[in-house]
Amino acid sequence: MGYKQFTIRDKNGWDAYISRTYTHDVFHSWHYHSLNKEGEQLLFVYEQEHLFIALPLIKRKIENSPFFDMTSVYGYGGPVSNVDLLTVPADIIVIFKQAFTNFMRYENAICIFSRLHPFLNQDHVLESIGGLKSNGTTLFMDLSIPIEDQRNKYEKRLSRQIRKMREKGYLIKDNNSPDDVKCFIDMYYKNMDRVNASPNYYFDEKYFSDIINMEGYENKLVLIYDGTELICGAVLLLSENIIRNHLSATSPDYLKESPSKLLTDEISMIGRRLGKKIFHLGGGVGGKEDSLFEFKRYFSDLQITDRIWCYINDYGAYNTLVSKSLWQPEPESGYFPLYRRPAHKAEAVTPIIDTTII
């Protein structure tokens, strides 16, 4: 059987394939990739008869070298298809691997890093290529059960705290004016200052506007007010079946109150009203079971394996770049690709920030 492989760089061609997938997330859209400024957005497509596998990526230039590498957008990427990936036949996976490695050589790309989508069975088509790694576990709520059944699973103190906050009569809004958006952005920046965030997380005002108003999706900005004072809020990303807290912030004056607990409970209700099946809470920083992970586990103990994909297509070029890197990073550090590891001064800054600020 013959097959085709090609790379799409235009919005219309990209959206045409993503719209035909069995299932996908907002992270796979052309619009979401267009917000990334690290490199060129492209969609690799393998197609055979009536089946296709599409892989959205960002292609980045490697400084002081003739090479490139590939990465996924901030969020959960990886391949999608017009069939459930778990049903892709083994013989097609073999040819997909060949097509993908040819694509990497053609694009002069030596490796790829992608954070995979935990609910799309992507490991089935990637495990034969290599580079799959566990990144701990990620937590989620099952929105198909009644809200009271969900709340009965909350940690007991958490349930009491949420009830008390609701009794205070905080105003919860998801129909926001431009002034509301600007207030949220200001609060978000203060949160990033507080946690000593990387510059990569200081998104500009246009980014927030673009992501909230993304064409074809129901993304929302949800804000909580104490009277006229903004105390907490979050940008929500919504796909066909999943709702997520993508970027959130809490007023420094209300950290002890922890209104993010009320916000999380409210997001579960929004997801139910919109017919979503899963509220993806995420995991800890860097896949660790840290205080952030424990906070999320107060809401749900449902877990699924979180995976990343760290595949090297050209070991010779990769090892040469690692050997020439300024700081000679240790292979056991877990950072990938190693030649992009930040310098020592930057290591004091959190490299990955989970978007639920508590």
Task: Give an overview of the whole structure.
The chain is of the alpha+beta class and about 350 residues long. The protein folds into two domains: about 5-130, 3-Layer(aba) Sandwich (Aminopeptidase); about 140-305, Gcn5-related N-acetyltransferase (GNAT) (Aminopeptidase, 3-Layer(aba) Sandwich), CATH 3.40.630.30. It has helices at about 10-20, 30-35, 90-105, 125, 145-150, 155-165, 180-195, 205-210, 260-275, 290-295, 315-325, and strands spanning about 5-10, 40-50, 50-60, 70, 80, 110-115, 130-140, 170-175, 220-225, 230-240, 240-250, 280, 300-310. Strands 1, 2, 3, 4, 5, 6, 7, 8, 9, 10, 11, 12 and 13 form a 13-stranded mixed sheet that branches. The relative contact order is 0.15.
The CATH architecture term of the largest domain is 3-Layer(aba) Sandwich
What is the CATH third-level topology name of the largest domain?
A: Aminopeptidase
Percent of residues in helical segments?
A: 25-40%
The major β-sheet equals: 13 strands, mixed
Provide the CATH superfamily of the largest domain.
Gcn5-related N-acetyltransferase (GNAT)
Q: How are helices and strands ordered from N to C? A: EHHEEEEHEHEHHEHHEEEHEHEH
Précis, in short:
With 358 residues, the protein is an alpha+beta fold. Helices cover 30% and strands 26% of the residues. The chain has two domains: 4-130, 3-Layer(aba) Sandwich (Aminopeptidase), CATH 3.40.630; 139-303, Aminopeptidase, CATH 3.40.630.
Architecture blueprint of SSEs:
Blueprint: E1 4-8, H1 11-18, H2 30-34, E2 40-48, E3 51-61, E4 68-71, E5 80-81, H3 90-106, E6 109-115, H4 123-126, E7 132-142, H5 147-152, H6 156-167, E8 171-173, H7 178-194, H8 205-212, E9 220-226, E10 229-238, E11 242-250, H9 260-273, E12 278-282, H10 291-297, E13 302-312, H11 315-324
Parallel strand pairs: 4-6, 11-12
Antiparallel strand pairs: 1-2, 2-3, 3-4, 3-5, 6-13, 7-12, 7-13, 8-9, 9-10, 10-11
